[in-house]
């Protein structure tokens, strides 16, 4: 018996998934910087902490879901870094020539709260970059930039990018909530730094950033229609290619009903997709209409059924980490971010800040503001990096004051 249109598409989608090359991400950084927490946020689970992953070396654990593997380096103490560096080097080298095993990108995590970069952390970035791996620096537990990002940019010119991430939703004793941020940006920049062959896997497997998926889906439609118009592929092949690729890309299980709905909506129910001659009579414009409507229907279907598969799906706020009371959270979800700080009281902010930085630093931060407001003398540190940080802090307070 001949294969039906539905069978052909389902087989092709299976093939599409089989051919995706695994994306391998190495995540490195000092112990306690938040590497495992970041992975758990991206994967929505307890993968890293519960040790579900497969041990690869003394320090590396492989955590795999579908076609993405993340190598989490556990408990690295950079005081004794030579051994760790050697371990990372030989791990990367061993896999270099195997396309499905080679490390495609490294995320080096440096904690933002400490406001101090260690020599070993800079070396870690350089060593991985010199192995030919694109390195993205992630400033973890990111709450406010005190000039650390700029400082690291200067210290680590080999890094492709630096992203500030707060990976975890935290609720404080008095009900204040900090939502995750930076994960969408991390996804986008990671995608941009992958080779073309791995880009397909990455966009198919990630669910943080739906925009990248939709853009890619549109370009798939355009490319196939173009070669159809040039007569290089026939209508049936065009339709099958487009439907297969966008279905796979959007992480969707093919539903024949959806195509049928599309044909009904555009009043083309007389088209029999199981009859090749019928498909060949369609114009390119009609194929374009069917494909664009199909894409829209998948989006609607996902929205209605909240059919977001489970990898890389993270709820996060749109800009810098927010500080708001959980009682206000449901209504403030759509309100503008500028409204939120006004609702927070200084005492709350100070209490909250002491969770992430030594209380002496919090007091310094607030006394700086007081000194500027009273025009009293400010003493700058002698050490250049510290001095630069303090100057940038002062500038920020002044700029705020002038607004
Ligand atoms: N507030 C806040 N805490 C975080 C964040 N990320 C991690 N943490 C906390 O930091 C601590 C260390 O996090 P881990 O994810 O275990 O750090 P790690 O880098 O995997 O540490 P090792 O496995 O020892 O190398 C935990 O208590 C986390 O809850 C964050 O974005 N914000
Ligand atoms: Mg860990």
How would you characterize the overall build of this protein?
Residues 323-343, 384-403 are annotated as: Disordered. Residues 331-342 have a biased composition (Basic and acidic residues). This is G domain-containing protein. It holds the Pfam family MMR_HSR1. The chain is α/β, with parallel strands linked by helices and 403 residues long. It folds into three domains: 5-15 and 209-305, no CATH class; 21-205, 3-Layer(aba) Sandwich (Rossmann fold); 328-402, no CATH class. Helices cover 51% and strands 11% of the residues. The strands form two sheets. The protein has a seven-stranded mixed β-sheet, sandwiched between helices. Strands 8-9-10 form a three-stranded antiparallel β-sheet. The longest helix has 22 residues, at 284-305. The N and C termini lie far apart (75 Å). The model is unreliable at 307-344 (pLDDT under 50). Residues 35-36, 48, 72, 74 line the site of magnesium ion (MG).
